[in-house]
Amino acid sequence: MAASLTSNTKLQLAATAVVSAAVAAGAVLSYQRLQQGGRVSRLKDSIPQPGDSEPALQSVSRVGPLPKPDKEDEHNQALAHRAQNGDFDDELILEQLARNRVFLGDAGLAALRAAFVVVVGCGGVGSHACAALARSGVARLRLIDFDQVTLSSLNRHAVATLADVGMSKVQCLQRRLVAVTPWVRFDLRLQKFDGKAAPGLLEGWEGGGGQRPDFVIDAIDNIESKVELLKYCHDEGLPVISAMGAGTKSDPTRVMVGDIGASFEDGLSRATRRRLKLLGISSGIPVVYSTEKMGAGKAALLPLAQEEFEKGSVGDLGVLPEFRVRILPVLGTMPAVFGYTVANHVILKLTGYPMDYQPAKARDKMYEAILAYVQASEEKVARMIEGGRTDVCIGLKVPLTPGDICFVVEEAFGGRSAVTGIPTKLMLIRWKKPSATTLVRIGEGKDEQKSSNMRLRDLVCMTKEEAVRHQKEVLLGDKTLEDLYSKEVIELVEASQKLAGAYERHRS
């Protein structure tokens, strides 16, 4: 009986404890919810509510106010006007950027909020990059684009709606993003980028002490303008990142960041790289590109109409100097992947966040091996011309770099043997048998420097087996080029050597 009473007492005490704990927990949670609700309410109340007499946003745009603003536009523009004039609770901004703040740290977020970024090209890629930067805290954005939002833009543009069709892309971005980040200042430039306009379009921020761009984003899909932008940024020391071709791509796992000199499997990157090398720029520009290979059943560039060919040369890609010569097949998700990858790179760079990208598939070791092969071949040729003397080869140098080798192999010869088109086990070797000495001597005795008179335009790309035969039978033997190669091969080599010669004249 006593044991039973004791047991009941324990159960009652346990039940009371459980109920008390539940009541206490409920009270704590209720208090926390009230506190959170009050904080949210205070934050919302701190958003300035424009009145009927509130002035419209004094735009820094070079293209004027938004056309026919509706009630929501008027509200957002007035709110942005007040926010940009300091009438906005900074606690509210920090709350909106809280996730970035804890990720990047106070110093990182402060650097981002003080940054000035230029986005050139505000279509699929550029719009997503711009939206990500604004949402992440970048305070000054200059948007450059001459084009308008079209119906076909809506499958890939970050913020455009049906109501924006016909509006300039730069105004569309400002119109939509001020509703999200009213404190961001936009400088709109409704203009097509080209080299002549570069100094004005990439000038310092007006009213901000002439602050130079902290970063420039190249989201242009026109080769001529793209090359001019990258050349200008390179020469002026402006940090820049370039987005390559998202058209015809479908695999987001193949999108990566790498140096312009190491990108591959990307037609736009290849054409851009080739033109930059002709201008003396072979590396130092980060690019976002896809390594996805084209194949059966995958999207490809649509054929050009005959009348487009009749206009003359249309270049080697679908992205052409004549704007919109053809419609590019674009999966709407891929420009977003490219745009966010670009923005991610800019954010990490501006904030000093550690970057350990997976390295791109460069072929530096291959180029070094080819350079060594050229060196060895030149030693044999020099020894033959000098009557078999071995001393002439001691210390012989060739005036080539791995970068030169890269250009000749990848650009001049398209990464293939000029003889068979085979893309593996490639080597470079002198094409024609020299008629005179190849040695260049400077100085005497122990101070003598010996080098080969080799030039890029002297080289041909072959497989290793083809190069061994060529050396034995042409360079060290008595056979002529016509004995071994067809007229088509000889013409192909000569055309490729002209391109190598053009690069050689312009390289720095």
TrEMBL record:
GO terms for molecular function: ATP binding; tRNA threonylcarbamoyladenosine dehydratase; ubiquitin-like modifier activating enzyme activity. Residues 40-77 are annotated as: Disordered. It comes from the Eukaryota. InterPro entries: ThiF/MoeB/HesA, ThiF_NAD_FAD-bd, Ubiquitin-activating_enz. Residues 99-357 form the THIF-type NAD/FAD binding fold domain. GO terms for cellular component: mitochondrial outer membrane. Keywords: ATP-binding, Ligase, Membrane, Mitochondrion, Mitochondrion outer membrane, Nucleotide-binding, Transmembrane, Transmembrane helix. It is found in: Mitochondrion outer membrane. Its main location: mitochondrion. The keyword Mitochondrion applies. It is a multi-pass membrane protein. One of its GO terms (biological process) is cyclic threonylcarbamoyladenosine biosynthetic process. Catalyzes the ATP-dependent dehydration of threonylcarbamoyladenosine at position 37 (t(6)A37) to form cyclic t(6)A37 (ct(6)A37) in tRNAs that read codons beginning with adenine. Belongs to the HesA/MoeB/ThiF family. This is THIF-type NAD/FAD binding fold domain-containing protein. It comes from Staphylotrichum tortipilum.
